[in-house]
Design brief:
By secondary structure, the chain is an alpha+beta fold. About 15% of the residues lie in helices and about 25% in strands. It comes from Streptomyces fulvorobeus.
């Protein structure tokens, strides 16, 4: 029987550290820290709620991150 693959570890990062940053700077920082998918969304966006390992989400208003969460 083939071994079950183990997904790579998610970056050890605090989503709160991105709040207040410029959206472009936050995206660069997230990619530098190892996030595979970085998603920027306007406030109130309708999104699916599936959890995706390795993804960080930014809610961006007036070019600044106002909220951040993983998955």
């Amino acid at each position: 029987m083939a071994p079950t693959p183990t997904p790579p570890a998610q970056p050890d990062d605090s989503p709160q550290s991105y709040v207040g940053l410029d959206a472009a700077a936050a995206e660069r920082q997230a990619r530098d820290r190892g996030w595979k998918t970085v998603r920027s969304l306007p406030p109130g966006s309708v999104i699916t709620m599936e959890y995706m390992k390795g993804r960080i989400n930014f809610e961006v208003d007036s070019s600044a991150v106002t909220r951040c969460w993983v998955g």
